[in-house]
Design brief:
The chain is mainly alpha-helical. It contains 11 helices and no strands. Helix 1 crosses helix 4, helix 5 runs parallel beside helix 8 and helix 5 packs antiparallel against helix 11. The N and C termini lie far apart (67 Å).
Length: 214
Amino acid sequence: MPRPRSLTTGQIAAAALAVADRDGLAGMTMRAVARELGMSTMALYRYVADREELEGHVLELVLGAVDTVPPPGAHWRERLAVLAERMRAAVAGHPRVLPLTVTHRHHAPGVLRWGEAVLGVLTEAGVTGTARAVALRALTAYVIGATQQEHLGPLSGAGTEAIAALTAADFPLMAATARDARGLTVEREFRRGLELLLDGIGGSLGERPSAGAE
């Protein structure tokens, strides 16, 4: 007879997340997580069937607390912006799990709840059919991509300084843009990029660009 279970799914997910934060997704093996929990690899298999199930638990731990109820009464742009900011805040503390939001998007409850909320706002705004599908994909891609860039290639990092130092004869626009970019905070970069995306959705509805558009 198997031994009684003594660990919760949340405890296992927390251990796996700690490994991923420290060693990356490649290092989040069943063996490494079992070691983190102080058990044998075979004992861990009594709790989770495989690596895929383990990844799902980790993603739900990160996204499970995301509030997917948009602010009532607000304009659709503001409601989508709030949902995007909440998702960004949830994954920002654990950027190494970002790829899981894509690979597990079909069945991860946290991703599905967020997507359903975004689609609800888009539908109420009048975005339907293929336009709605493209809008959801674009918003998802922006949140994931912007958060990855924030952590892997921040504007405040050495990469921007290197581009800013390029000779004007070879890369005049890249160098000038990098010098401008050094004054951007990560919050302003994210929100301004999101405004541009929302302006595009608004344009399909015949709305004028936001007042913050530059």
